[in-house]
Write the structure tokens for this entry.
Amino acid sequence: MDGIYKRQFIVILQNYLKAYDFFKNQMQSYELLIEEVLKKLLVESASANVPVIKPKRTAARKNQYGINIQEYLKHIIGVDVTKMDGLDEISVLEIISVTGLDMHKWPTAEHFTSWLNLSPRPKKSGGKTIGYEKRFTHNKATQSFRVAAQTMWQNRGALGHLYRRLSARKGAKKATKAVARKLAIIFYNMIKNQTEYDKDRLRVNTERLQARKLAYLKKEARKYGYVLQNETT
């Protein structure tokens, strides 16, 4: 390689390499610890033979584990929650490290989202809602759901459509909270009921929204003496 090989530059590069190797070894030691815990959970969750987790086929990319976390989570939880939009193996690992796997601690999904501080808390006076409480939390599970919700702005599915619609009407903060709550409800139901992620159920909500918009447009057109008709080709 061509360059300016001065003594001070070589020493700096050597120290950078030592620091890189040090942090890489630290990360690998943490991965070993995480894998030990996952193996214990795998044994506890297995009703019969303990499944064999195969190593990753592809090299770990940036901000990814070198071990097959997704396969571990699928066998431990019983369903593959990483199929949810916005959630990856790292975020799921962070969430269950706080919530655990027993969703029966919360009787309903509403109790779960309330515990996460993702449910609206209306302030009432004289029987009327005058606003909503602003509450802050350091719950890592809540933060993971919020981060997942923030990625929905470029999602082409129903959740992405919901995020962009709410963001346009009420702002990005409220859209993030609402979509994070939606993700938490899906996460709760998947684990508690042991059901796979079904995008079709979300797609039904989108169709219902489009039908509601069409009904509104027809109603507004009638006010001004017009009748909407389907475009014919």
Remarks:
- The longest strand covers residues 128-132.
